[in-house]
Specification:
single chain, mainly alpha
Length: 142
């Protein structure tokens, strides 16, 4: 008679009752490891696929950004920029407005001014911050 492997015996519902506790546990462990292995392999393949798609979509968006740039505007024109810009453009325009204000305060040009980092100072809130917080709280009242 041909000897069956443990997994063949484990897959047959009629012979599973003849297995010892140790054989049942070994078969369960093998089944669990195979299931986890397949699951993690598929997850890794999905992750690789998403990373490749991100690179492809990122390269197409970079090509769109490399379109001809608009001529440099004067600092006063940067201050008059419309407020309905995209979120990333809003940050860039905010930095441009701050740079223009600093340059105007110092009486120089914004060409040699470099804004490296903008951080909020700790300390008591200004009147504008307090008014903004109160306005937000008023809009949430029912």
């Amino acid at each position: 008679m041909q000897e069956q492997s443990l997994m063949d015996i484990f897959s047959d519902p009629t012979t599973i009752h003849s297995l010892s506790f140790g054989e049942k546990m070994l078969g369960s462990t093998v089944t669990m490891i195979m299931g986890l292995g397949i699951t993690f392999t598929i997850l890794i393949l999905i992750w690789i696929f998403i990373a490749i798609m991100g690179k492809i979509l990122g390269s197409t968006q970079n090509k769109k950004k490399e379109a001809p740039a608009a001529p440099a505007a004067a600092p006063a024109a940067a201050a008059a920029a419309p407020a309905k810009a995209a979120p990333a453009a809003a940050d860039d325009s905010l930095i441009a407005v701050i740079a223009a204000a600093i340059a105007a305060y110092e009486g120089g040009s914004a060409d040699n001014l470099v804004v490296r980092k903008i951080t909020r100072l700790s300390g008591p809130q200004t009147d504008w911050e307090t008014a903004g917080i109160l306005a937000r709280m008023e809009t949430r009242k029912m």
